[in-house]
Amino acid sequence: MDPATRDTQLRQAAFSHVNRLAVLRGGVLDSADLAGGFEFGGERIPLINPQRGIFKPRRMVHLLSIKTVFPRKGARVWYDDQREAHRHIYTGDDVVEYSFMGTDLNSPDNRWLLDAMQRQIPIICFLGTSPGRYQPIIPTFIVGWHPEWL
To answer: Which of 72, 111, 116, 119 has the most crowded CB, counting CB atoms within 10 A?
Structure first.
């Protein structure tokens, strides 16, 4: 199977898995739900990297998911999207800002974001709603690239 076809099939399997879980869990998933990944072709495929917000599984060609976290009380806020994503959504904006990984636009994580935007690849956004809990938004599309915001 060619890589593009496999990527599309993996993406659809991930979307279906997350949508099924969301229905079972009342729309909000926890860290354990995300850590479990999903099964594809007898193999476990992760949904996220627990340490990073931007994720592309090794078996995929393109970005699969982004994740925002809702910081615990008193915890450090690493990226502006931890504050701003919720404000955008709750005020009815259909575009949410998501921060680049670090300051290197050429890092793999940031290149995956650019690739997904240029190709209009649908991804999963796991929006942190409280510490360790996420609302999946499927499909999500990256619609802008603003390196001047670094």
So the answer is: 116
